[in-house]
Amino acid sequence: MTPATGAFSAVDVAAAAVRTLAPYVPGKPIAELEREYGVRDSIKLASNENPLGPGPLALAAIARAAAEVGLYPDGNGFELKQALAQRYGCAMDMITLGNGSNDLLVLMAEAFLSVGTEAIVSQYAFAIYGIAVQATGATLRLAPAYPEGHPMALGHDLEAMAALINERTRLIYVANPNNPTGSWVNAAALRKFIASVPRSAVVLVDEAYIEYVDDENFPSTPHWLSEFPNLVVTRTFSKAYGLAGLRVGYALAHPTIGNVLNRVRQPFNVNLIALSAACAALDDHEHLKRSVAANREGMRQVQVALDRLGVKHYSSVGNFLLVDCGRPGGAVYESMLRQGVIVRPVGGYGLTNHLRITIGTAEQNRRMLDALQQSLKQAP
Ligand SMILES: *Cc1c(COP(=O)(O)O)cnc(C)c1O
Predict the structure, then answer these.
(1) Phi and psi for 162 in degrees, rounded to 5?
(2) CATH architecture of residue range(s) 56-284
(3) What are 173's strand-pairing partners?
(4) What is each CA distance from 55 to 43, 58, 255, in whole angstroms?
(5) Which residues sit opposite 252 in a β-bridge?
(6) Gap between the Cα atoms of 97 and 314, Å rounded
(7) Closest residue (by CA) to atom 1 of ligand 1?
(8) CA angle at residue 148 from 144 to 154, to 5 degrees?
(9) pLDDT digits (tens, 9 = 90+) for 346-365
């Protein structure tokens, strides 16, 4: 027995799989920037939030629900599941709710992975996947992304991912579209991939930005659920619905997957206000339409301006753009911070010259573009 006195090192005591983890680095909050840099009126285009915020129906629901927070939420999320089941024409037991879709990404890892099993992700895929996998002690297999020069440069190469499948594979994450690259995989390629995955593994298709996508070749994965019992589709109210701060997302899958997820899910993982707001947001077609249209215009505005500035950017079907500054992105990021504009450095992905920039309102985009131009002049 070690004596009950002396130095304590939490890292030494932590689970082996946790010891080597690096925490996820979120976008810098506006209040933190203003505290640290003494700037004012700053804008945040760093976390792919909806610049229009929540819609009027969600706001009204939030106000109504506030009076109820003395009570626990409905742990089964009946009303929201019912609304989603109606939306997708599926049974309620095909829906699992999450504290953000992030919760579901982690629950899937907890439910299907353990030491000795493997999960597959693409290089440059959303960073949460790797953290969720590694925390379980499972082995993370990284498939090389499409190279520069490819029409979907840095995007998921599903054939490279398929080549990593073996009898130990339990979980495969596909971000469609992917963050931070903005890249996507089409219906034919994704379908072929899913059909090739053995039933000893689950495919999770993360569609956090689906509402923004406008391409006839983009997959409609909910229609495939009856055919593939090992397919999970996750979606969220954080992005186009403008409810990032409330934390609510959902998974669509065969009921047996929901059954497994419910064994590890916290009983009240989605809060009472979030449940109400999400129900209301689902009905606010006008706000969603407005948000998607604003993004489309903003995306054009930013792309045209970047072309004019000669800044390389990657094609994106989301509400953000990956840009290549042609010099260390960290310095450009810092310089933009001093001008009160928060974007996202992506050096953690090995994209050291790159920044990920959320599409904002027309005015925010102008400010971001001015700050970027200034920063590129300062740090040539
Ligand atoms: C933002 C994002 C999510 C998760 O967002 P939640 O707020 O947890 O729903 C999931 N996947 C990708 C690729 C994202 O960019």
Answers:
(1) -60, -35
(2) 3-Layer(aba) Sandwich (3.40)
(3) 204
(4) 20, 5, 31
(5) 95, 233
(6) 32
(7) 208
(8) 45
(9) 999 999 999 999 999 999 99
* Average pLDDT for 7-22: 92
Instruction: For residue 41, give the 3-state DSSP assignment.
Output: coil
Match 């760093």 to its residue by tokens.
46
Q: What is the 3-state secondary structure (H, E, C) of 98-132?
A: ECCHHHHHHHHHHHHCCCCCEEEEECCCCHHHHHH
- Show the tokens assigned to 279: 């129900």
Q: What is the tens place of the pLDDT at every residue in 257-301?
A: 999 999 999 999 999 999 999 999 999 999 999 999 999 999 999
- Looking only at the bridges linking them, the beta strands covering 118-122 and 139-143 are parallel
Whether the CB-CB separation of 277 and 246 falls below 8 Å is answered with yes
Mutate to test the pocket of ligand 1, among 181, 235, 239 (most ligand atoms within 8 A of CB): 239
Q: Is the CB of 238 under 6 A from ligand 1?
A: yes
pLDDT by residue (tens digit) across 251-265?
A: 999 999 999 999 999
Q: Take residue 303 and report the two structure tokens written for it.
A: 């792309």
Q: CA–CA separation, 253 vs 266, rounded Å?
A: 19
**Contact of 271 with 43, CB cutoff 8 Å:** no
Check the CA dihedral 34-209-306-53 and report its sign. negative
pTM of the model: 0.96
CATH fold for domain 14-44+286-378: Aspartate Aminotransferase, domain 1 (3.90.1150)
Q: Ligand 1 centroid vs 100 CA: distance in angstroms?
A: 7
Say if residues 206 and 175 touch (Cβ distance below 8 Å). yes
- Domain locations in the chain? 14-44+286-378, 56-284
Ligand 1 neighbourhood includes 208 CB (under 6 angstroms)? yes
